[in-house]
Design a protein that fits this description.
The protein has 283 residues and is of the alpha/beta class. The chain has a single domain, classed as Rossmann fold. Helix content is 36%, strand content 15%. An eight-stranded mixed β-sheet has the order 1-2-4-3-5-6-7-8, with helices on both faces. The chain starts with a helix and ends with a helix.
């Protein structure tokens, strides 16, 4: 069993390319689980601060994606796409000398995890894909891309309230509005460079993680897909999570009961579900 001291986060910095520094932390001992966050989030938004998996002798490794959180902006303002994000993941695991490991990725992190997995399945023990939204190259229409551009404009202006408004939280059912507004504001306030986040917001939705969902059929890694009901989380349609689970051989799908708070928002419950899955998968 890990001791309290072993569970304390140990910071690290990784330089995938000259001029780019990724800020991360590693905590715990045991089989590693890499945590990849979503677009406009930080490394603290995958398990929402839960330390449950440390008590199950897991090593948690997390870092802020380029341009996010405490990581520096990309020296190349066009280099925020999924190819770059997957290369950053490779740099982190190589720098930390991780042989085999599991990945839990949320939204953008889920697509990054799939791109990495398709090239490096031999290194993975398991995948956890949390609220995936990516459907393939070129699947976002002009209205969706314009929405991302409006979010980027608010970030470039340093207008956090405007960013929150553009996300559409006020269109959620009333019970979810204030929690979503508060969580969104807190997420954005964790970034040191909003211009870098804005650049990522423009690039990531236009980049390619994989060609289409048929690519998922090549995965032979134990996989858990975590979906969310559309009421509180319309940006991550449950139908997409269902399609991932259908395409990936042997994948499990879990989703909260309708009316409940999404699993992806509940760090402790999500962590327990992940821990149980990793044990079942012997990963």
């Amino acid at each position: 069993m890990s001791t309290g001291g072993e569970r304390d986060p140990k910071p690290f910095e990784v330089e995938p390319v000259r001029g780019l520094s990724l800020s991360g932390e590693s905590a715990g001992e045991g089989p590693p689980l890499l945590l990849l966050h979503g677009l406009t989030a930080t490394r603290r938004n995958v398990l929402q601060g839960s330390r449950h998996l440390l008590s199950r002798d897991r090593r948690l490794v997390s870092y802020d994606a380029r341009g996010h959180g405490e990581s520096s902006p990309s020296p190349d303002p066009t280099a925020y796409g999924y190819a770059d994000l997957a290369a950053d993941l490779r740099a982190v695991v190589d720098r930390l000398e991780l042989g085999s490991f599991a990945i839990a990725g949320s939204s953008m992190g889920a697509a990054t995890a799939v791109r990495f997995a398709l090239a490096h399945q031999d290194r993975l023990t398991a995948l956890v894909l949390i609220t995936p939204a990516y459907l393939g190259a070129g699947t976002l229409d002009s209205d969706a891309l314009a929405h991302w551009d409006r979010l980027a404009e608010a970030l470039d202006a340093g207008d956090v309230d405007g960013f929150v408004d553009v996300t559409g939280v006020d269109r959620l059912p009333e019970r979810w509005r204030e929690p979503a507004r508060l969580a969104t504001r807190q997420r954005i306030e964790r970034h040191r460079d909003l211009h870098a986040v804005a650049t990522a917001v423009r690039v990531v939705p236009r980049s390619e993680a994989f060609r289409d969902l048929s690519a998922l059929e090549a995965l032979r890694v134990p996989t858990l897909v975590v979906g969310s009901q559309d009421g509180p989380d319309p940006g991550h349609p449950l139908a997409v999570a269902e399609r991932y689970a259908e395409r990936i051989d042997g994948a499990e799908l879990i989703v909260e009961p309708e009316g409940d708070t999404p699993l992806a928002w509940q760090g402790a419950r999500l962590s327990r579900a992940i821990g149980d899955f990793l044990e079942r998968a012997q990963a």
